[in-house]
Amino acid sequence: MARPHSTRYTVAALLLLGVAVIILASLGQWQLRRGDERRAILAAIEAGRKQAPLKLTPDTDPAGMTAWRAAQATGVWQPQFSVLLDNRNHEGRPGYWLAMPLLLDADAKRAVLVLRGWLPRALPASGQAPGPGPAQPSLPGTPEGTQTVSGELSPRVPRLFELWSLGGADQSVLPATLPAAGGVPQVQNLPLDAYAKATGLALLPTVLLQSDGGADDGLVRDWPQPSVDFQQNTSYAVQWFAFASIAAVAWLVVLGGAVRRMRRRESGGPQA
User: Fold this and answer.
1) What are phi and psi of 134, to 5 degrees?
2) Phi, psi angle pair for 137, to nearest 5°
3) Helix axis angle, 4-50 relative to 230-267, nearest 10°?
4) What count of Cα atoms within 13 Å lies in the side-chain half-sphere of residue 210?
5) Is 68 left (phi over 0), alpha (psi -120 to 50) or beta?
6) Lowest-pLDDT range, 27-31, 166-170, 202-206?
7) pTM given for the model
């Protein structure tokens, strides 16, 4: 006679192992897809950097504003429209990115938004309690007159995941109008359309990540790069598929044992 508990254990083991095979194989497929995404990013970076440097003017065709392409713009800085992008760390140090428009055509208010660089967060002095609002860091001076700025293009200001404080008001909303009272606004992210509306500028549909600048302005221009290590994803995929194979073999072993026991019962032989 068959042992009910033995049958239940066998069925449960087969179900668990079957689910494990599906989950582990799915994780392997997911790693392969992530690897394909990183390959695509790497190809886009290489393609953009192979293009000839682009001269940004008020009439530049947006089709040529390819991400990662070297570019140069000539205009006048508009420091009154400066914005600080908060929670941008550099080598483990908290700080900001300084965003500022470069006016290309004063009559048409045509401009390009430039990320000028990174600067450290202003920390309260020893024994001093932090103020009620965000501290204002010491901003570098802004060169006057016509300036030529070089860098790389980005389709948008690189975004940061926004984690709003529970039960607290969001303190990083871009003011409706710039310049704003109370110092330079500090925000988490800076959509171009909202920024254009707040400043009244006609912005080019791109962002220039500045690579040159005065050696004494104190800004760090070491822009983060996206991860393109697709080999790592391939390695992880191989591991997940190996685990799925082990689970599949275990499923076959359990199934084979169940089949053998069933045949013994049908033949009237001794039960294991």
Assistant:
1) -65, 135
2) -70, 165
3) 160
4) 27
5) left
6) 166-170
7) 0.79
